[in-house]
Amino acid sequence: NENLVVLGIETSCDDTAAAVVTSLLVSLKLLLLIAMVKFSAKLSLLREFLNALKNSNFEKLSKLYYFCVPTLCGLSSNLEVPYIIKAELLARYGGVAPKMAEEAHALVIDQVVQEALDKANLTEKDLTAVAVTIGPGLSLCLRIGVRKARSIAGSHNLPLVGVHHMEAHTLVARLVERELQFPFMALLVSGGHNLLILARDLGDYIQLGTTIDDAIGEAYDKTAKWLGLDLRRSGGPAVEELAQEGDAKSVKFKVPMKQHKDCNFSYAGLKTQVRLAIEAKRINAGISLASSSDEERQARADIAASFQRVAVLHLEEKCERAIEWGLNIEPSINHLVVSGGVASNKYVRARLDEVVKRKGLKLVCPPPSLCTDNGVMVAWTGLEHFRLGRFDPPPPAHEPEDAV
Ligand code: KG4
Ligand code: ZN
């Protein structure tokens, strides 16, 4: 039972993240040391964006918008990006552009991994294994992480563990809550996924429900965009914050999939309902929230609150059913794990806590830094598999560039 030191690399979407997780056996207790570094792919293109802004290069601006504006607003409040430019570019451009994300990952991957090692006071030579996300995700982006992982593992003759992104979101809960034993239930809610899982054992999962169209995070992001919220962060937190000022019963949205007695989700219809409500109220998303009238601010807050209530009600209903299904298959289930970006929402946590209590279970929700995409979840999942002998042999030390 030697000490394990695992490096985890995550590049599946628009965050470049790395972490080192070390398990030490100290007086029969497993002690974990964690060092994590996360770099937003948005940041590395910031300089180019500023140059384009200076030169009024609109073509370049619209390409770089997605990465740079949210970061820019967050970084420096006195650096004014004219609101009208933001609105215009946002209308033309939204979502993650794989090619640009790939470039951003490639720019920062070495630095991110080095910083994670430095933080842990370790070098590549001290590692036991290298874990890396191999999917699901944007293939161009995944390759950057995989190439880095193979190069480190190859140079130091280290085993490699390929990690499933959604398994990592699930299992990181076991790092946070050491009592969490299999079997347990998990709800994974992010920008791209909406899953209900029965985790029976390590590597043994039953999918009880998924989304038939959009994930809840996507609905949050679009709502934020259509409400013209300042994209200082991603859409979810902006909607959550504005919803606190709103009346959640003021706009009557329909709860999706009520008539379906299954555990699946659908958020496309709710998105449309939100868009129509925004149009009906004649909200002008081109005017920033800060400079809008009190009346308009209230109208936006009411929509945000009403959307959030119904979006989460949908989660509550399906979770409740999934727990019943899960308990039928595995009566010894004690926990529901809620993870993924949307799990950092306080309203989501509070409402699901009620559901879980009614069913006699305990809620386990990792802290926001481990709910959104991160390297710790990958390193930890790698460590769990490695302990059971599930890993690949070291890759060749010098493989050709295009081997991955
Ligand atoms: O897990 P994640 O970082 O990346 C994916 O794998 O998608 O999740 C990102 C998603 C985004 O849609 C973001 O808007 C949402 O999680 N999110 C939130 C909150 N924080 C992040 N949604 C609602 N409320 C939040 N506080
Ligand atoms: Zn994720």
From TrEMBL:
Superkingdom as given in the UniProt entry: Eukaryota
UniProt remark on cofactor binding: Binds 1 divalent metal cation per subunit.
Source species: Solanum bulbocastanum (Wild potato)
Complex and partners: Homodimer.
All copies of domain Gcp-like, residue ranges: 87-380
Residue window of the full protein shown: 69 to 472 of 520
Cofactor(s) essential for the protein: a divalent metal cation
Protein name (database record): Glycoprotease 1
Keywords for the protein's UniProt record, in alphabetical order: Acyltransferase, Metal-binding, Mitochondrion, Transferase, tRNA processing
GO molecular function, one term: metal ion binding
GO biological process: tRNA threonylcarbamoyladenosine modification
Subcellular location: Mitochondrion
UniProt catalytic activity: L-threonylcarbamoyladenylate + adenosine(37) in tRNA = N(6)-L-threonylcarbamoyladenosine(37) in tRNA + AMP + H(+)
Gene Ontology cellular component terms for the protein in this record: mitochondrion
Function: Required for the formation of a threonylcarbamoyl group on adenosine at position 37 (t(6)A37) in mitochondrial tRNAs that read codons beginning with adenine. Probably involved in the transfer of the threonylcarbamoyl moiety of threonylcarbamoyl-AMP (TC-AMP) to the N6 group of A37. Involved in mitochondrial genome maintenance.
Main location: mitochondrion
Family named by the database record: Belongs to the KAE1 / TsaD family.
